[in-house]
Every structure is written in C-alpha cells, then in structure tokens.
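Help needed: design a sequence for this.
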C-alpha cells in the first residue's frame, strides 16, 4: 500500500526473463509481456534470487533448504498472548498458533532442497516431509512443552527457506553491474528484516549512498565459487543448522572446505597448522608444532588451554625474534597501463604515483569522504631483463587488500578506470588483473627479520639500501621475488611476493636459514593480537563505510596538496580541524590481565556509554585484552570534540559479560607509539 500511495504501479502475474544493460549499467528488465526501461533493478526474488542474478552474471549464492514446523490441535491452556519462546538447545521456537502451538525447527542436520534449480512454477507450495529425519528433532523440541506431546498433530509443514553461506543478508549494489541491487538471503527472518532492508536500499538508491554499515551485507563479499551447486548444497546444511547454535567466537566452519589452498598448505600442515576458513582459503590460525595434530578443544568462551599458550608463544616470537606468516590469501591486483599512475593517485588518498620501488599505505574514499577501502599500493621496481610491460608506467602497480574486501576493491579499481577516463573525456588506458592466486605472500616479521633476509639474498638489505616503505626485487635461492619493507604487526619486517610455482622453493630456503635464528611459524591469531596492540586498522571489522578518514585516525594517509586531488578530497578536507571530530576510533586496553575481549562489549567513559568494541584480541605484550572502539561523547559530553585531552581526562571501563573492568584508552598506539621498531 505504501508503494501505491507513493505512485508506484504494481503488476502481478508477470514473468521476468532477464535484465538489460548497456556499458555495464542497468537499462531495463525483460518480461513475458515486453521490455520495461528503468535505471535501477532490485532483485528481491527470495530463493530465486540466485537464478535471476545468474542471467546477468551476478553472484548471489543463496540456497533453499527444507524448513519444518508442526501445528498442534487446539490446546485449552494456550493463551494467544504468549510470546515466542526460543530454545536453541532444542533447535526450536514455539509460539501460539490457531488455538494450539506452532513448534518450529532449525535442526542441526538440515537438508538442501532443489540445489540445481528452484522450479520457476513453485509458489506457496509444500515439500513432502521427511518424517524419519525430522522426528527426533521434533520430539526433543516438543519435550520443552510436554503437554504438546499429548495434543494431536494438526499438520507437519515443510517448505523451502533460503540461506546464505555466512547467514548474513545479501543487500546492496552488485559489483558486476551498476544499479543492479539485491535484497535477498534473509535467512528465514525476512518478515522481521524486510522493512529495514527496504529502507536501506531506498536510501541507497535515492541518495547514492548507504546510511548504515554495509560491510557485512554487500553482495561483493561473496566469491563466484560459492554459487556452485556443490558448495551451496554442502554449506546450506550447516548454515541452517547454525541459526540456533551458540555462536562461539572460535566455532569453525565445517562444510565446503579445502577449496582454495596456499601453495604452502602442505608445508604448514606438517608444522601442525590449525586451519580456518578465510574467505574460502585455508588460513593457518595457530600452530601445534611439527608432527602434532592441532586440537581446538571444546568450544567455549574464555581461554582455550589447548592453544592459548601456543598463540602467546607465536606472538612473543614476533616481538622478540622473527616469525613467518603465510598471507597468500590476501587480495592482490596488478594495475598497469599509461594511465595507471594518475588513476591510482586519483583513487587513493595518499600520493602513490611516485618513484618506482615504493610501497604506500593508503585509503580509498567515497565522494562523501567516508572509507571505502584500506590497502597498500606498490609502484613496482623494474625486473631484471624486463621489457617494460607496464604499458607506459614501467612495471605498473601492485594493489594489496584484505581477503574480505577482494571483490569490493576489484570493483573500485575497475569502475575507477571507467570513471577516471570518462571524467577526462578519454578512452580508458589502464587495466586491472587479479593476481591473487598467482602470487604467494610470505611475511617475515620481527626484530631479526633483516638478519634472516640478509642470509637469504645477495641483495643489500641494510637500512640505507632498503629503507622503510621500499620495494625491491631480490633473489632467494634460485627465485626472484618482490620484497616490500612494510608491517602489519608493528615490527621491522618484510612482505615477500613469490610466484606460486616458486613458493615451496623459497619457503624451504627461508626455513633452512631461519632455523639458527629461531624462526617461528605464526598464524592469524598472532597476527590479530599483534596488529591490535599496535592499533592497526582492518576495514570491514573495525572500520566501515560510515567512518571518515579523520575519525578513523588515518588522516596521515591523505596528500591534500596532491595535484588533481583524490576522490572525496573536498569532503575529507571539511571533516578535519579543531572541534570537528565528535567521533574517534580509540584503542582500549583492559588493566586486569584476566578477562578477554571479542567484539561488541560496551565502553564507558566516566560512567557514560560512549561506544562499543569493534574488534579485539589479547595483547600478550601489553598484558591485557586490547581492542578498537569508535567512541563519541554521551550525556553531558554529547557532541563534544574528541581529542587527546578528552580521552586522557576520562575514567574508562569496558563491560565484559556484565562486569565493568577498568581500561586505558588512547588515540595513539599503546605499543611503540613513535614507530621506532618498524623503522629500526
């Protein structure tokens, strides 16, 4: 009714057969009654969303599964005013319905439905129940209300509901096609979330941007392999089953695994790596030790004695010696062409088109000055004997972003090429190639990393020859690799980009040379704790699309005097200055060494709520749980500028499971605030 009142025309009984597009932008829809021209399309087709999206090359990997509920006969004692009761331990929800009870299930052993294709003519239909499979779950659920076992069963309903691989909705613009929006994958709570999703999309379409954090909803977070039948059929069983499982912080993903593996996977497994799902990659989380089988232990909150000490040892080894991290899952793009330099200088806040052989940490912004990406850009040094294949810009550039931002960053680059050329009235003169799978990434980090690299290569790696933020081509064994001096852990360190076919050879050389230096293999647990001690950011976790450059403490990445500026420069310029910042990302450290932080814990200043923890870990060097929180004044301080004086003058606490623990808060890194260690 609201749509009709707003002037919309609603036509039912029409079959949509496709979406028309020109130059990568939606132009209309094709139906069995003819074409309709339009500027925007919203795919809100529920469990059919994937099939419609496929017609336009768009990836929406939702999959239907069997969903059950039982209706009892009327029960005299049932009051229709009773609330919905949820019992995750019994995989059930129970509510009054028709004078009796509805007993619904999200069983742990679910069943996919119509994996190849959902029938086009299926509508408000039912699936033949699998009594044998569902009966044990149903009996356990009904035992929660024992009198329901005595009531007659009026109906056992089985119908399809669609679920996504990560149980998050698919909402926002598709990366493959401009103005193609998706509102699907509601994971059985479409009635609850539909109104909010509609408002979010309407705001996005009308105003050209979202006004809520979209990082966990965007279609770009999914990879094309997740839409394959084998993946969907396996993962949906787990997704439905997780709806009512306790979401422990270390719960592993069990299905559709071992799809994407680093060239070093076997070597890491031999070192006792515990692997977890990292955007479809197998990422080493921590190491049990050579020849040992990693034991995750019973899922729980708090310390896991099976591996907490192993994690601490990896963390300490990086702080005091040298550690090896396999980061091959990082998103890597080769940008080249005669316009590659000007393009990236326009997209990035920092000046990245300088001399060859330099790596730059930078951001990408929206025109409103809010964050879009957090990445590094390396202007590649020449290769020995190379012919200058960069197309007028030498070797071109290597853009590296986190795994979760893969398709989002790729879309920013590809659309940036088009927009940069269109704004100048010229033909595109840059290309972007996804080289993620072609390059292994081995990070050597810690105060002895230079000593290790020097033992591996004939190149001069002294501070004078290989300073911080330099990029060099170096030999390791019989291989040539790209080495950059950069860190994400707050120590002297190097990132090595190795052709996949040479990765095992380079790894073996590193391990052999590293043994006398006490080289330790470290995983993602250590990476997280090290980076959070240093206060390093991670877009999509502690940063999102609503945060500005200066709120995030990243104003130092912006070259405001850069010729031609950058996307969002005017907004970013207006967002800085005394008294402007009323929100800031701060680092918080619990002074009690016992409690742990995960995310979502409420942060207090002088007894007033000022924010919550966005990302956290345990600071083994700092001696307590550490995290990042976006804070703003509350109570009498509402709207007050957030600066060092405001932060330092407050009394800080963090609520952990109902107990408030004293904390330190800082705008500067609590570990090595002067960056002396990384520039050693």
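Sure. Designed sequence:
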């Amino acid at each position: 009714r609201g749509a009709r009142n707003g002037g919309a025309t609603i036509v039912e009984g029409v079959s949509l057969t496709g979406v028309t597009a020109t130059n990568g932008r939606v132009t209309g829809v094709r139906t069995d009654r003819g074409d309709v021209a339009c500027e925007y399309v919203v795919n809100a087709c529920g469990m059919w969303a994937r099939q419609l999206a496929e017609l336009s090359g768009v990836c929406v990997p939702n999959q239907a599964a069997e969903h059950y509920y039982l209706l009892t006969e009327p029960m005299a004692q049932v009051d229709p005013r009773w609330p919905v009761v949820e019992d995750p331990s019994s995989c059930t929800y129970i509510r009054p319905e028709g004078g009796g009870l509805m007993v619904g299930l999200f069983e742990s052993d679910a069943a996919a439905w119509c994996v190849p294709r959902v029938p086009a003519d299926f509508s408000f239909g039912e699936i033949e129940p699998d009594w044998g499979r569902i009966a044990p779950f149903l009996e356990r659920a009904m035992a929660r209300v024992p009198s329901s076992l005595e009531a007659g069963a009026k109906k056992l309903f089985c119908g399809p509901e669609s679920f996504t691989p990560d149980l998050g909705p698919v909402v926002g613009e598709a990366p493959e096609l401009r103005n193609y929006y998706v509102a699907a994958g509601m994971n059985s709570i479409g009635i609850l979330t539909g109104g909010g999703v509609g408002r979010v999309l309407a705001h996005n379409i009308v105003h050209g941007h979202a006004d809520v954090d979209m990082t966990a909803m965007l279609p770009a977070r999914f990879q094309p392999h997740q839409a394959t039948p084998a993946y969907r059929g396996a993962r949906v069983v787990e997704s439905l089953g997780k709806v009512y499982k306790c979401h422990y912080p270390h719960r592993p993903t069990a299905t559709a695994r071992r799809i994407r593996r680093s060239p070093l996977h076997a070597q890491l497994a031999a070192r006792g790596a515990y692997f977890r799902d990292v955007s479809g990659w197998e990422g080493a989380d921590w190491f049990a030790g050579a020849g040992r089988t990693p034991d995750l232990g019973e899922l729980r909150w708090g310390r896991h004695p099976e591996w907490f000490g192993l994690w601490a040892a990896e963390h300490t080894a990086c702080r005091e010696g040298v550690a090896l991290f396999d980061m091959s899952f990082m998103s890597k793009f080769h940008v080249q062409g005669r316009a590659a330099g000007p393009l990236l200088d326009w997209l990035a806040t920092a000046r990245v088109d300088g001399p060859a052989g330099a790596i730059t940490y930078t951001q990408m912004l929206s025109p409103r000055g809010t964050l879009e990406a957090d990445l590094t850009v390396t202007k590649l040094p020449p290769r020995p004997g190379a012919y200058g294949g960069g197309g007028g810009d030498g070797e071109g550039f290597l853009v590296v972003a986190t795994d979760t931002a893969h398709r989002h960053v790729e879309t920013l680059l590809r659309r940036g090429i088009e927009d940069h050329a269109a704004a100048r009235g010229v033909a595109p003169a840059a290309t972007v190639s996804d080289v993620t799978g072609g390059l292994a990434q081995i990070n050597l980090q810690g105060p002895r990393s230079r000593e290790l690299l020097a033992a591996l290569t004939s190149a001069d790696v002294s501070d004078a020859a290989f300073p911080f933020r330099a990029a060099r081509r170096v030999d390791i064994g019989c291989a040539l690799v790209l080495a950059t001096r950069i860190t994400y852990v707050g120590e002297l360190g190097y990132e090595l980009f190795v052709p996949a076919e040479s990765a095992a050879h380079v790894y073996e050389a590193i391990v052999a040379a590293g043994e006398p230096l006490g080289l330790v293999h470290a995983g993602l647990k250590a990476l997280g704790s090290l980076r959070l001690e240093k206060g390093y950011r991670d877009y999509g976790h502690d940063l999102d699309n609503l945060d500005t450059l200066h709120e995030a403490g990243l104003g130092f990445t912006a070259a405001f005097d850069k010729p031609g500026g950058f996307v969002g420069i005017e907004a970013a310029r207006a967002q800085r200055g005394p008294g402007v910042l009323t929100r800031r990302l701060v680092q918080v450290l619990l002074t009690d060494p016992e409690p742990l932080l995960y995310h979502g814990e409420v942060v207090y200043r002088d007894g007033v709520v000022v924010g919550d923890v966005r990302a956290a870990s345990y600071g083994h060097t700092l001696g307590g749980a550490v995290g990042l929180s976006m804070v703003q004044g509350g109570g009498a301080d509402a709207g007050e500028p957030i600066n060092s004086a405001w932060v330092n003058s407050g009394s800080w606490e963090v609520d952990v499971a109902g107990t408030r623990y004293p904390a330190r808060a800082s705008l500067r890194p609590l570990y090595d605030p002067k960056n002396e260690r990384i520039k050693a």
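The CA atoms of residues 131 and 383 lie 65 Å apart.
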